Amino acid sequence: MKAWADAGDKPEDWTFEWTLLGKDGDTAFVQGLTTYLNDEPTYDNLWVIRFAEDGRAREFTEWYMARK
Question: Which domain holds residue 45?
Answer without folding.
Answer: 12-66
